[in-house]
Amino acid sequence: MRVTASCASERALAHIFCALAHPGQMTLCKSGNWLVSQTFPEIIGGVTSTLHVTSTVSFLPLRKWWIFSYQCESSAAALVQPEFLKGSPHRKHPGVTNLKTLRLPEDLQKGALTVIQKSEVKDLAERSHRLRNYLWSRKRATEASELKEKAIELEKKWMEKEKGQQSDGDDPNFEAKIKKKVLSELRKLTYHWMPLRYDAELGVVYMAARLSGGYAAIMRALNEIKKRDPSFAPRTLLDFGSGLGTALWASHTHWGDSLKEYVCVDASAAMNRLAEQLLTGGSETNHPHIKHVYFRQFLPVSPKVQSDLVVAAFSLSELASQQERQDTVLTLWRKTSSYLVLIENGTKEGHRILMQARDVLLKKEERVIHDSRRPVVFAPCTHEQTCPKLLKQPVVPCNFLQPYHPLPLPGNSEKEEERFSYLIVSREEREKPEEGVDWGRLTAQVHRRTRHVQCQICCSSGELKQLAVTKRHHGRDMYRCARSSDWGDRLPIIDAKDDTDQD
Fold it and tell me: Which ranges of 138-199 does DSSP label H, i.e. alpha helix?
């Protein structure tokens, strides 16, 4: 702080200004300096503190001006921090689980580039782009019950239309005509689902199209467990529909020190061979970068053998029917000791598949129970009620974004975003919320304004709300956490006033 005085008489004014600026105790020393003692609240390192300041004030002549300066010595006594922060600053509060732009592990990227170069697949850039679009737009296979309902609806529609146009005489071929029109309409409206058969060449195209994006989505989903359950140290991994082994690489990145066994299950022998080549850097003679990895084409038979971590990424959508998906989800749950992680594309179809799996796990009663611990939704849902996004029209899927660097191949950009949906189910009990604090999930882009933060939050009550978080209405702690949070993070809701509108 600096105050100037043009003459000696103005020194008194400087003294008064100092006293006003620092209301405290001023003492004149023998040296002619003033000693100012003061106590006031301060914020240091994101922590509210009480600051005790002792200032030495002196006046130095410089030409015709007097320079007023002081030096401070302070000591901060930190006040009690909110318990939900667990010792972290607001910008790193426990709800922050987003990751920065991800890149493939160096060994995995080198191996993938080596395999792609050796394969010499023609028109790789174009084919990988088409495959990526096809997988994104792919829908579920139509169920027989859905076809039947649609046929009845169409038959009723055509019956009413034809009867209005029909003459007084009865047409003996009337029913045959209606049946033909119904079948023709069904062929146009029904999605023709076909299973994908991966051979070695299509596997390489899939590698160029989806390796980096799939790895980014799995890393982000697993980081939810890593951040919220730091004591979790899995020893065994089961990856269903393992494909190129992205889940084992992501799991190894998070828990490489504790994992001792990786079991990868994929029906395609060609994909299993490609995954093995990636482990050895694209060579069949090198030692694998990750040891104790076992590849199978079928799930282990015994229901009593469990794995600490079970992952099924982009696999349920490859099953032909709802019944097959239901049986598979229950089988995977029986083999889960701690966490079951399901990941799909962030489309309406992918979101519905995950919500159906969630309902199966929470509501389906098994005949034989090998593990009595009930399933608990760990993430991203903050409740176990019907997803509020499915109740809105038009339906908007609950999905999340993860930026990543794709493989350095012709036609690929420097940076892309993976849009995905996920579900994590745990056998452990849900975390007990702190008193006065309720955690919600940010399900859309966070808009930071001058004095408020606009958020869409899925609350533990099962409601989807739009909140304009302000320091005045929601408190300083929630406001600062909101400014530091992004889409996909959890946000602490601290005794917020009911000024929100349900979205």
Answer: 144-165, 174-189
- Band of pLDDT at residue 498, cut at 50, 70 and 90: very low
- CA trace torsion 139, 335, 337, 291 (10° rounding): -90
Least confident stretch, 203-217, 382-396, 431-445, 449-463? 431-445
The whole-angstrom separation of Cα 190 and Cα 202 is 26
Q: What span, in angstroms and rounded, lies between the C-alpha atoms of 388 and 398?
A: 9
* Contact in structure between 494 and 475 (CB atoms under 8 Å): yes
Reported as a single tens digit per residue, the pLDDT across 120-135 is 899 999 999 999 999 9
Of 394, 380, 381, 375, residue with least CA distance to 332: 375
Tell me the C-alpha distance between 385 and 394, whole Å. Answer: 19
- What 3-state DSSP class applies to 326? helix
> What would the two tokens of residue 163 be?
């009867």
Cα distances (Å, whole numbers) of residue 374 to 336, 371, 385: 11, 8, 16
Task: Tell me the one-letter amino acid at 476.
Answer: R
Q: Rounded distance, CA 246 to CA 30, Å? A: 75
Which residues, 6 or more positions from 389, have their beta carbon under 8 angstroms from its beta carbon?
351, 395, 396, 397, 398, 443, 458, 464
**Tokens 């929601």 belong to residue:** 474
Report the percent of the chain where pLDDT is more than 70.
78
CA atoms of 13 and 31, how far apart (whole Å): 19
